[in-house]
């Protein structure tokens, strides 16, 4: 068994987690209290000028629960779904939020988390719909593991967006506008 942080795992959809297990990687989820998580959460909130009440409204939890999180309540792990919501409300990478909160993944060595990332990456970039015009299959071994994880994460986020075509069109239009100005 090897231990991986959420940053090493890639995009994590809380819906993939069942009874403390991440099915996609056949990984058990491990939580250990992190002394600095409350300070981190408070710093992210105050940097963005949000009160506890305003943040609690955005993520639909009581402000007293957020007070306990910021104070370092270590009774039990905060729900992963809440941490993802907090990361979105605070514009923080959800993997960073999960890592700071103390989540780790115990991956079976034969499950090969990196091998799975490679398989997912190949499935995404060699698909007829998404394959970049200049990408040659012979170049795949030379692409960094981090870039592969980012491609797969991008594809998952795009698949979960309510209007993926509209999103891409808007982003490309904005990029052209920046280039022209």
Description of the structure:
The protein has 181 residues and is an alpha+beta fold. The chain is 53% helix and 9% strand. The protein is built from 9 helices and 5 strands, in the order βαβββαααααβααα. A hairpin with a 2-residue loop joins strand 2 and strand 3 (21-22). The longest helix has 17 residues, at 164-180. The radius of gyration is 19 Å and the shape is globular. It starts with a strand and ends with a helix. The model has no long low-confidence stretch (mean pLDDT 78).
Please name the defining characteristics of this protein:
181 residues; alpha+beta; 434 Repressor (Amino-terminal Domain); 2 domains; 9 helices; 9% strand
Mind sketching the topology for me?
Blueprint: E1 2-4, H1 6-9, E2 17-18, E3 21-22, E4 27-31, H2 37-47, H3 52-59, H4 63-71, H5 80-89, H6 94-101, E5 103-107, H7 113-125, H8 145-160, H9 164-180
Antiparallel strand pairs: 1-5, 2-3, 3-4, 4-5
Helix pairs in contact: 2-4, 3-4, 5-6, 7-8
Strand content: 5-15%
Q: Which stretches are poorly predicted, pLDDT < 50 over at least 5 residues?
A: none
Secondary structure: helix percent: 40-55%
CATH fold-level topology of the largest domain: 434 Repressor (Amino-terminal Domain)
Q: By helix and strand content, what is the structural category?
A: alpha+beta
CATH class group of the largest domain:
Mainly Alpha
What overall geometry do the principal axes of the alpha carbons give? globular
* Average pLDDT level: 78
Radius of gyration over C-alpha positions, nearest whole angstrom: 19 Å
Say which CATH homologous superfamily of the largest domain is assigned. Answer: lambda repressor-like DNA-binding domains
Topology as a string of helices (H) and strands (E): EHEEEHHHHHEHHH
């Amino acid at each position: 068994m090897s231990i991986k942080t959420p940053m090493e795992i890639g995009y994590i959809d809380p819906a993939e987690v069942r009874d403390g297990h991440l099915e996609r990687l056949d990984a058990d989820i491990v939580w250990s209290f992190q002394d600095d998580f409350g300070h981190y959460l408070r710093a992210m909130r105050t940097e963005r000028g949000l009160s506890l009440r305003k943040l609690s409204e955005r993520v639909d939890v009581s402000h007293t629960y957020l007070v306990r999180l910021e104070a370092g309540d270590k009774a039990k792990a905060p729900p992963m779904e809440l941490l993802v919501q907090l990361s979105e409300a605070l514009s923080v990478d959800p993997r960073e939020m999960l890592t700071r909160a103390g989540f780790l993944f115990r991956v079976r060595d034969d499950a090969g988390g990196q091998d799975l990332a490679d398989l997912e990456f190949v499935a995404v970039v060699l698909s007829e719909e998404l394959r970049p015009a200049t990408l040659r299959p012979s170049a795949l071994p030379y692409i960094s593991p981090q870039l592969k994880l980012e491609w797969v994460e991008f594809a998952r986020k795009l698949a979960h967006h309510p209007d993926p075509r509209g999103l891409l069109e808007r982003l490309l239009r904005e990029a052209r506008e920046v280039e022209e100005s």
